[in-house]
Amino acid sequence: MTSTAARDTAEQDVFGGVDSHADTLHVAVISDNGGHLADAEFTTTAAGYAAALAFLNAHGRVITIGVEGTSSYGAGFTRVARSAALHVVEVNRPDRAERRRIGKSDPIDAYAAARAALSGRASSAPKDDTVAGIRALHNAARSAVKARTAALNQIGSILITAPESIRAKYGRLKGTDRTDALARLRPAGDPVHTAVLTALKSLARRVKELTAEHQALGNALDSVVSVHNPGLRAAYGVGPDTAAQLLVTAGGNPERMRTEASFAALCGAAPVPASSGRTNRHRLSRGGDRAANAALYRIALVRMSHDSRTREYVARQTAAGRTKKEIIRLLKRAVAREMFRCLTTMVAVPGIADLRPLRQSKNLTLTAAAQHLGVWPSTISTLERGIRRDDDLAHAYRDWLQAA
């Protein structure tokens, strides 16, 4: 290559595209007018990532790189490219019509990703690593719950068809009483009884182990979420699992949620028109991230049951003739507005660390405080430990303690 050609290559603007897989990734380079320049395959290793970046930079000034699977197979390359100050965007797979028209191969998909980056069709920022730990813990906790539920269902199924003596003894037990009794079994008797009791004992021990595992994962998840976004975790009705799901949906990138309305649509909480003729109404959205929608639903249910302001709102809407589904839709939309604020801005959380030492210094019991404030002692306990957030109650509690 002559010096003039090398200078022209170094000065031209290029766009990259990456089709990622478990062991390899295919990289394509196009010019700023869409012309194909080159493509090559690299391994998904540190050396492969470095070689892929060198390959891209050798063809000009890299403007944008479109990557398929920035949070899955392409996560490693995305991490290295962003650390090199390169602009990376997330690319969805080509639609079926385009795939039928031009076919499918690694080079074709890589060039398609590059064209998506050039045209601006791919503009979403990739998910970064700030919620990678939360996502891992959340997935592990969910899988523990699913496995525990499956084991409990198996126990119930076995007891339905078990010999009458086993069914009569353990079928009437419920919950942890049944699990504890089955875990202590010493299988004996004829071959059928021994086999059934052995299976029940194994499943019961599995349930107990998964319960302990889920508890440990939940505690770890709570700690990580509280550190990552204390305002979100402290919001009323937001538990560790709910907060984790909302953080995973947000992807650690507030720029992915340009407005509060777009976040509501992302969570399937945006009102959808369902009017016809003289009927003028909206209905629940059935789109968006259903896991995030379920998180908003759980928050709404908790507030409907325990938050006085929400209960007053529900009473007013019921009196106005709205159905329960319509009220929940309105609540989910309001909750989405609050969650968006917690996810995109730093929400100050009033301190509560002084409450327990102040109560103990006055030699006051939880029962005495609860009786004065008209709540249960457990409410005061969870408030002191930071498990429950209730700013109004905290202020009233602190004023009472200071005056006592």
Automatic annotation (TrEMBL):
Which residues belong to any copy of the Transposase IS116/IS110/IS902 C-terminal domain?
235-314
Write down the Pfam families for this protein, in alphabetical order: DEDD_Tnp_IS110, HTH_31, Transposase_20
Domain of life, per the record? Bacteria
Coiled coil (residue ranges):
none
The protein here is known as IS110 family transposase
Q: Which organism is it from?
A: Streptomyces thermocoprophilus
Q: Where is the Transposase IS110-like N-terminal domain?
A: 17-159
What are the top taxonomic ranks of the organism?
Bacteria, Bacillati, Actinomycetota, Actinomycetes, Kitasatosporales
